[in-house]
Recover the amino acids of this structure.
């Protein structure tokens, strides 16, 4: 069961909306599929991102995947711990492995995201 | 999946899917003058007859000429041990291992090549090699664009014209812009990269620069103000790509010393024969921070489950076969045998030997300059050089052709590769290496003297 208070993308990002701040990470399903994560490239602070655009990179031993922004806005914070400890994405992707925070430009964009039930359906049919 | 060849229907379906009328349309970018009109091969012959025929063809090459030609590929002496070891079956016919960790020996040789290049350039990371200096330079420039997320590169006019053309070819496909930095026209710095112009080009706020590419020594043989170029590039937030000649690194300041971020060059001078243009060896190196941007294979050293030293191909996930259109390059191979030859050459002559090769070449070049000046043929530019320089010769192209009849290859008539520069119209680019003898130099000067005197009559 995936956390109920979050929204999800088809590319397996989760996002927690609190006011106009969106915290973003990748789901347990994604971390498991990727395997051991060895490197994370996050966008620069202040960078303006568009919804569903590729904003970063997650590199595991077998693949390099893009990180997509679930909502558009300005990058206001990134998780500095991931530089030295990318393995946090495997051990705690939903908590300590959070990746970045975006100041949401248009709250209506959240409606384009998947709710927990829809994301469950996506990962179970995979 | 069917394993038979494509049928006409298969082809028609594929063409329709990509919206192309015929297979020939896919080759539209190849100029008509370069397209094949069919092969005119004679009927099969026995090995004896065929060998004789090939030998007759090969004899049309002039291998007897006393050569002063450089311009990107240099005559050096290769110790016999290099060619002998290269012939080993494990090396000579092996292809890129697809399960690399099984080929520990192959990986180790690549790792040693990378290590030696790192030592020569002073940079942290070296790729397993590329096709040649031109493509390595283009890849270095592309790296600067990816790393900075800018789309404009400045390249000095004193970088080898073939390297500049190759870079433009790469850039055209990627919608990037390459602007040429002009050279100083006169004065003590004539022929070198114009720093004032560079600073001006870097100051265009609407068109930020990703990277600045300068060669040292330059195509004209001159030493360039690399530290200043680096300073100007970095001040504008651009990366600095230096194009280098590996033997010269034994005596000149290496890229690390003038803060280059990326170094590219051709490894032909390290034990590879001239072979009429190839195969050569593309060297590419960079600082640690750019390790995820460097294209090509990377061999790393680690420990296996039993704690023993082991070599692996690392950062594979960045390569084209996995990352596809987002990969750092569309090329995912290397010049393994050539890189191996370079590593063997360096191991055979060692760091002192390499320094001697470079120093001896420089000494001979100074003798060459004096000998030519004594017959009235003077350098085009006043600045310092290592072992290559341009001289003014009236009717350069004609004199060059006449000297071939004397058995002398008098360098390169510069107008042939740099036709747009009027100051190079009557110029020859000549070089000397450790294999150039005083007798060679005397013969060259004497022949030149005769030719010019004859022309004057």
């Amino acid at each position: 069961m995936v956390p109920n208070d979050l929204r999800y993308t088809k590319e397996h990002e989760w996002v927690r909306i609190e006011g106009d701040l969106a915290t973003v990470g990748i789901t347990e399903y994604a971390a498991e599929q990727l395997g051991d994560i060895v490197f994370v490239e996050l966008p620069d602070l202040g960078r303006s991102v568009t919804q569903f655009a590729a904003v970063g990179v997650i590199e595991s031993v077998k693949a390099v995947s893009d990180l997509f922004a679930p909502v558009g806005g300005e990058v206001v914070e990134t998780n500095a711990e991931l530089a030295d400890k990318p393995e946090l994405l495997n051990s705690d992707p939903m908590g300590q492995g959070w990746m970045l925070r975006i100041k949401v430009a248009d709250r209506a964009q959240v409606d384009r995201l998947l709710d927990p039930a829809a994301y469950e359906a996506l990962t179970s049919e995979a | 999946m069917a394993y038979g060849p494509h049928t006409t229907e298969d082809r028609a379906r594929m063409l329709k899917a990509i919206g192309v009328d015929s297979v020939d349309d896919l080759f539209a970018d190849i100029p008509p003058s370069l397209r094949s009109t069919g092969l005119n091969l004679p009927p099969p012959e026995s090995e004896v007859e065929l060998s004789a025929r090939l030998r007759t063809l090969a004899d049309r090459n002039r291998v007897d000429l006393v050569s002063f030609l450089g311009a990107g590929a240099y005559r050096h002496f290769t110790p016999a041990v290099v060619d002998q070891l290269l012939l080993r079956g494990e090396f000579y016919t092996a292809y890129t291992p697809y399960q690399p960790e099984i080929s520990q020996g192959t990986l180790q040789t690549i790792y040693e090549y990378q290590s030696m290049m790192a030592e020569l350039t002073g940079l942290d990371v070296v790729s397993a090699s590329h096709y040649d200096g031109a493509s390595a330079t283009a890849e270095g420039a592309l790296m600067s664009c990816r790393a900075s997320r800018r789309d404009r590169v400045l390249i000095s006019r004193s970088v080898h014209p073939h390297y500049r053309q190759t870079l433009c070819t790469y850039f055209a496909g990627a919608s990037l812009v390459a602007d040429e930095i002009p050279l100083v026209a006169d004065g003590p710095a004539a022929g070198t990269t114009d720093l004032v112009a560079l600073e001006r080009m870097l100051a265009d706020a609407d068109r930020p620069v990703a990277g600045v590419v300068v060669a040292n020594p330059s195509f004209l043989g001159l030493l360039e103000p690399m530290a200043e170029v680096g300073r100007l590039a970095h001040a504008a937030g651009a990366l600095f790509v230096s194009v280098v000649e590996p033997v010269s690194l034994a005596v000149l300041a290496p890229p690390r010393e003038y803060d280059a971020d990326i170094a590219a060059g051709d490894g032909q001078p390290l034990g590879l024969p001239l072979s009429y243009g190839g195969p050569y060896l593309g060297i590419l190196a960079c600082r640690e921070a750019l390790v995820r941007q460097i294209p090509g294979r990377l061999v790393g050293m680690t420990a296996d489950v039993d704690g023993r030293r082991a070599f692996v191909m690392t950062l594979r996930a960045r390569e084209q076969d996995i990352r596809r259109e987002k990969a750092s390059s569309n090329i995912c191979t290397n010049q393994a045998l050539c890189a191996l030859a370079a590593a063997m050459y360096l191991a055979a002559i060692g760091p002192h030997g390499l320094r001697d090769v470079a120093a001896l070449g420089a000494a001979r070049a100074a003798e060459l300059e004096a000998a030519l000046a004594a017959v009235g043929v003077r350098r085009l530019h006043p600045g310092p050089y290592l072992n290559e320089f341009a001289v003014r010769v009236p009717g350069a192209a004609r004199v060059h052709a006449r000297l071939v009849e004397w058995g002398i290859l008098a360098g390169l008539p510069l107008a042939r590769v740099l036709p747009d520069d009027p100051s190079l119209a009557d110029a020859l680019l000549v070089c000397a290496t450790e294999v150039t003898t005083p007798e060679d130099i005397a013969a060259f000067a004497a022949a030149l003297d005769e030719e010019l005197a004859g022309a004057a009559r």
